[in-house]
UniProtKB/TrEMBL annotation:
<dbReference type="InterPro" id="IPR049509">
    <property type="entry name" value="DyP_N"/>
</dbReference>
<keyword id="KW-0575">Peroxidase</keyword>
<comment type="similarity">
    <text>Belongs to the DyP-type peroxidase family.</text>
</comment>
<feature type="domain" description="Dyp-type peroxidase C-terminal">
    <location>
        <begin position="262"/>
        <end position="435"/>
    </location>
</feature>
<dbReference type="GO" id="GO:0046872">
    <property type="term" value="F:metal ion binding"/>
</dbReference>
<dbReference type="GO" id="GO:0020037">
    <property type="term" value="F:heme binding"/>
</dbReference>
<keyword id="KW-0349">Heme</keyword>
<dbReference type="InterPro" id="IPR011008">
    <property type="entry name" value="Dimeric_a/b-barrel"/>
</dbReference>
<keyword id="KW-0479">Metal-binding</keyword>
<keyword id="KW-0560">Oxidoreductase</keyword>
<keyword id="KW-0408">Iron</keyword>
<dbReference type="GO" id="GO:0004601">
    <property type="term" value="F:peroxidase activity"/>
</dbReference>
<dbReference type="Pfam" id="PF20628">
    <property type="entry name" value="Dyp_perox_C"/>
</dbReference>
<dbReference type="InterPro" id="IPR048328">
    <property type="entry name" value="Dyp_perox_C"/>
</dbReference>
<protein>
    <submittedName>
        <fullName>Fungal peroxidase</fullName>
    </submittedName>
</protein>
<feature type="signal peptide">
    <location>
        <begin position="1"/>
        <end position="20"/>
    </location>
</feature>
<dbReference type="InterPro" id="IPR006314">
    <property type="entry name" value="Dyp_peroxidase"/>
</dbReference>
């Protein structure tokens, strides 16, 4: 508070001469960015320009100045800190939230042009325990959120709880700050600023630093695959959907908007539920599995046959090219072309979608989490906006040589997974339980698809149960390649509500 007050005094002092003497140069009120705080890999759908978004949102009646910036932006962060906190003084927190934090919260509209972007984008979201602590008692209409993620573990997500980070298994996480910028220095400076403003009303429970991977791996997750290509186009935000991109109602992601069928408190409008997961990736083990089980296409080298197996488990090559369009050989030009890289739906003239796995296995991660034409009519109910970022360092030489992930916690790597939706039970939890972990999904196929080879578990909560995804070998779709271990290990997470800026002002702040 004092810090903000001093800044205010300094700013108004700087303004004084301009008011008194009209001919002096106008003061520079705020340094403008010259480079974006977001990354922009060619393969990913471009964000709308500020003008395009203004037109689209006006048509749909969406207020982009009121919606927190992370929700609609997707996987384009460069550095992002997840700072999980406990509220120790609710009254002080609420007072400082309105006076000091709210002006720092970054709405969607600010992120769309470099010169309106802040140095560090700041978003905030609250767990149900956080709402309870703040005395906000309204039912937001989502039982997954109100029960918390730990409650979902055994019955729904199939995690092995002993792998959970203790912070997520406890009861003290009330909220999370998401701080995103292009440098860690900016992120750390903004964290200090936030902590100063909040004057000890919160304590840190846990934090996770996310970072885009270096060099030509920017935009790729730790297994090496380009990520974030197939996020949906949201009506009222994206003006021109890309070929093959699913166009979905804003109410699937934002409470109270068109397409949200649940009754909510009025103040919750334009908020979104954030499902956070710390998903560890065992990269050396994954790479070894691909080499040991490499396919046997005679026209490919051994390395290419290993890559092919990975691509079929994922549904895309590492470049991002979809195997449905590039079944045997990677196509980096296709991968980098957003006009083509999402334009497929698993149906091909002359092929039966219930039997054909020559293009894409039924079990591929991409197909399990969005079967596209595999469901008729095409599913429009169970979708998320993915907005995560990789965390942890690159694989070390010692890990590569031993084909084993280090047990040193500072070398843990994975995906800080973030999914936004207006209903967690229809969004993230649905995708994980009903689609990814369900060996029979999608139904009506000639052979049982099996669980998702990347994120699927058998739902038992027991690690490393053998999985038998279907169709991984295009030459013999009946051949079962058994996966004996998990390459993705859930380290836990929590469900949060990311309120609109006006809700922060009118309902959360004092
Ligand atoms: Fe997945 N990966 O990087 O390997 N995911 N995912 N995911 N995922 C996708 O098309 C990955 C996870 C979805 O519309 C791609 O954007 C990893 C969870 C959905 O066609 C890649 C992890 C859930 C899609 C990855 C992980 C999902 C999708 C292709 C965990 C939900 C879009 C890039 C560590 C429960 C499907 C792209 C569509 C795509 C990866 C987790 C869901 C490369 C490593 C937990 C809906």
């Amino acid at each position: 508070m004092k810090f903000a007050f001093v800044l205010l005094l300094a700013a108004s002092a700087a303004l004084q001469p301009a008011f008194c003497t009209p001919h002096v140069l106008p003061p520079v009120l705020k340094p403008r960015r010259t480079n974006s705080l977001l990354i922009d890999p060619a393969a990913l759908p471009a964000l709308p320009s500020a003008q395009q978004a203004a037109t689209a949102s006006a048509d749909a009646g969406l207020n982009l100045t009121d919606i927190q910036g992370d929700i609609l932006i997707g996987m384009k962060k460069n550095k992002e800190l997840f700072f999980f906190f406990n509220i120790v003084n609710s009254t002080l927190f609420r007072t400082q939230l309105g006076s000091g934090i709210l002006p720092l919260i970054t709405p969607t509209s600010q992120l769309l042009a470099v010169d309106t972007q802040p140095t560090t984008a700041v978003n905030i979201a609250f767990s149900q325990r956080g709402l309870d602590t703040l005395g906000i008692t309204d039912d937001l209409g989502d039982t997954s959120f109100s029960n918390g993620q730990l409650d979902n573990v055994a019955s729904i997500l199939g995690d092995e709880t002993s792998n959970w980070e203790s912070a997520f298994a406890g009861t003290s996480i009330h909220g999370v700050f998401l701080l995103a910028s292009d440098t860690l220095d900016n992120v750390n400076a903004t964290l200090l600023q936030v902590q100063n403003i909040l004057e000890g009303s919160i304590t840190e429970v846990y934090s996770l630093q996310g970072e885009a991977r270096p060099g030509d791996q920017q935009g790729h997750e730790h297994f090496g695959f380009m990520d974030g290509i197939s996020n949906p186009a949201v009506t009222g935000f994206a003006l021109s959907p890309l070929p093959g991109q699913q166009v979905l109602d804003p109410g699937l992601f934002l409470l109270g908007e068109t397409g949200d069928t649940v009754t909510r408190p009025a103040w919750a409008k334009d908020g979104s539920f954030l499902a956070f997961r710390q998903l560890q990736q065992r990269v050396p083990e994954f790479n070894k599995f691909l080499v040991d089980n490499a396919l046997s296409n005679p026209n490919l080298t051994a390395d290419q046959n290993a890559e092919l197996l990975g691509a079929r488990m994922m549904g895309r090559w590492k470049s991002g090219a979809p195997v449905d369009l590039a079944p045997t050989v990677d196509d980096p030009v296709l991968a980098a072309d957003p006009q083509r890289n999402n334009n497929f739906n698993y149906s091909h003239p002359g092929f039966d979608i219930t039997t054909d796995q020559t293009h894409c296995p039924f079990s591929a991660h991409l197909r399990k989490t969005n079967p596209r034409a595999g469901l008729t009519p095409e599913n429009t109910a169970n979708h998320i906006i993915r907005a995560g970022i990789p965390y942890g360092p690159e694989v070390t030489d010692a890990e590569s040589a031993s084909n084993t992930s280090s047990t040193d916690p500072s070398l843990e790597r994975g995906l800080a997974f973030v999914a936004y939706q207006s209903d967690i039970s229809n969004g993230f939890a649905f995708l994980q339980q009903i689609w990814a972990n369900n060996a029979k999904f999608p139904g009506g196929k000639a052979s049982e698809p099996g669980v998702d080879p990347i994120i699927g578990t058998d739902g038992s909560g027991i690690a490393d149960v053998a999985r038998t995804p279907s169709g991984l070998d295009p030459d013999d779709p009946t051949r079962i390649i058994t996966i004996e271990q998990d390459f993705v290990v859930s380290r836990g997470g929590e469900y949060f509500f990311s309120p609109s800026l006006s809700a922060i002002q009118n309902t959360f702040a004092l």
